[in-house]
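A reminder from the course coordinator: this example appears on the midterm review sheet, so study it carefully.

Given structure:
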């Protein structure tokens, strides 16, 4: 997809570099058009390096290509972030005094503005009128987030986080309706995904609910001929991510992808429209699903946030690395007798499940989210205790928990096996559901429980 990223002259322009990375990592071609003022904050060299394309805002550059017409015509989507009060006014007034404003006038695809400015500017009658004018023309204007602004000020006017803008952009392209509000009383998007997720979906009365005694899953021996999920759009992640150390080595995990593939097969058999995003697996992906292969946690994050924007159900079964190397060696790390052993510094990967929950809340999306947790116990608690804490922390509707580690016979208990034993916890305090048997039987039970919850509304 061809995306134009317009960058306005605000200090939040640095966040748009992260937004650009999300677009490119998702496989899109991005043309960046910064305003002259924005280059005071982020230079042209940064945009060219991150996008891989020349960057200008001068209508007289490449005149032979008629850029002020061509770029707008070829764009599948235009995103302006940050959109300053000045840019909103120019767009509402139909100005055409630089490459960005002329491109906006030539746009034939969807246009999304992500405003950022001080609270007084956002709430000024002129800005309110300009936003209303743009929305009346079919232009999509997000509400700014509430949070810390330049200096000591706090209030509505903060640029939404790049992940939230990315999710809104992908939903817009998919044809979904964005939640927009009157500019005079903006409804903020999340600035801290984890906090928003818990506040939005874990009511105070729900979080402390102690689960009742587990119950066995209702028999669901085969969904081969059912239509329990007919027409339901189901996104599933599977496999184990790999975090490269150098061109030949990586940090990985023991996930085989068998449970994720079994879930995809069960959902397909139940009539669902399935998208499977998978890291490396030991088993082939099922026929009938839309397949996207990734390697790293960051690649999984970009692909999942994009696909989740249009999903009715999200099942996060992939084993995602919690950490990745801070630096990736461009050459193979050598083992030398006259050199010290290498020291590898790790950095934390984003929590994709928490972000999916946060984006659901931000978009007011009706969506069922299922997480997976491979847990072990220690001196401070058992696997079930940690799983219950994780359920509340993540904010997903259901959490499928299995205890991993050595089995009674000495082999692995879950990873790579054809069988599984799980307990399914519910955020609303419903009784835990136990399921066991082949991984396909467990998948059938999970799909059956999802269908019950969707039917109950």
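Designed residues:
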């Amino acid at each position: 997809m061809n995306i134009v990223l317009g960058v306005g002259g605000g200090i939040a322009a640095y966040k748009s570099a992260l937004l650009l990375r999300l677009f490119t990592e998702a496989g899109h071609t991005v043309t960046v058009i910064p305003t002259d003022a924005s280059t005071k904050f982020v230079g042209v060299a940064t945009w060219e390096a991150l996008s891989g394309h020349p960057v200008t805002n001068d209508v007289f550059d490449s005149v032979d290509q008629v850029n002020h017409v061509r770029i707008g015509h070829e764009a599948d989507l235009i995103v302006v972030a940050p959109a300053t009060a000045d840019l909103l006014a120019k767009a509402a007034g139909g100005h055409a005094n630089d490459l960005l404003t002329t491109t906006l006038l030539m746009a034939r695809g969807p246009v999304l503005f992500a405003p950022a400015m001080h609270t007084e500017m956002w709430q000024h009658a002129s800005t309110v009128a300009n936003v209303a004018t743009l929305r009346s023309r079919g232009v999509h204007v997000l509400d700014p987030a509430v949070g810390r602004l330049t200096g000591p000020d706090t209030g509505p006017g903060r640029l939404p986080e790049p992940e939230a803008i990315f999710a809104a952009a992908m939903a817009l392209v998919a044809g979904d309706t964005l939640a927009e509000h009157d500019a005079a009383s903006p409804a903020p998007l999340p600035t801290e995904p984890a906090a928003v997720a818990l506040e939005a979906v874990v009511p105070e009365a729900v979080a402390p609910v102690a689960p009742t005694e587990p119950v066995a899953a209702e028999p669901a021996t085969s969904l081969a001929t059912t239509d329990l999920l007919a027409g339901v759009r189901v996104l599933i992640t599977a496999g184990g991510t790999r975090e490269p150390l150098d061109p030949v080595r990586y940090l990985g995990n023991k996930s085989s992808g068998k449970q994720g593939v079994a879930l995809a097969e069960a959902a397909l058999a139940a009539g669902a429209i399935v998208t499977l995003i998978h890291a490396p697996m030991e088993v082939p992906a099922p026929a009938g699903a839309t397949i996207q292969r990734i390697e790293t946690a960051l690649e999984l994050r970009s692909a999942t946030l994009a696909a989740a924007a249009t999903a009715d159900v999200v099942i996060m079964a992939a084993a995602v690395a919690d950490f990745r190397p801070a630096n990736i060696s461009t050459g193979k790390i050598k083992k030398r007798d006259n050199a010290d052993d290498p020291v590898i510094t790790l950095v934390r990967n984003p929590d994709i499940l928490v972000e999916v929950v946060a984006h659901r809340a931000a978009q007011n999306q009706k969506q069922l989210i299922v997480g997976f947790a491979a847990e072990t116990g220690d001196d401070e608690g058992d696997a079930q205790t940690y799983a219950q804490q994780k359920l509340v922390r993540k904010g997903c509707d259901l959490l499928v928990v299995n205890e991993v580690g050595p089995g009674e016979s000495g082999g692995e208990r879950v990873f790579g096996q054809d069988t599984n034993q799980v307990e399914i916890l519910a955020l609303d305090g419903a009784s835990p559901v136990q399921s066991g048997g082949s991984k396909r039987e467990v998948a059938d039970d999970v799909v059956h429980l999802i269908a019950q919850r969707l039917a109950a509304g």
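The first strand starts at residue 2 and ends at 7. The first helix runs from residue 13 to 25.
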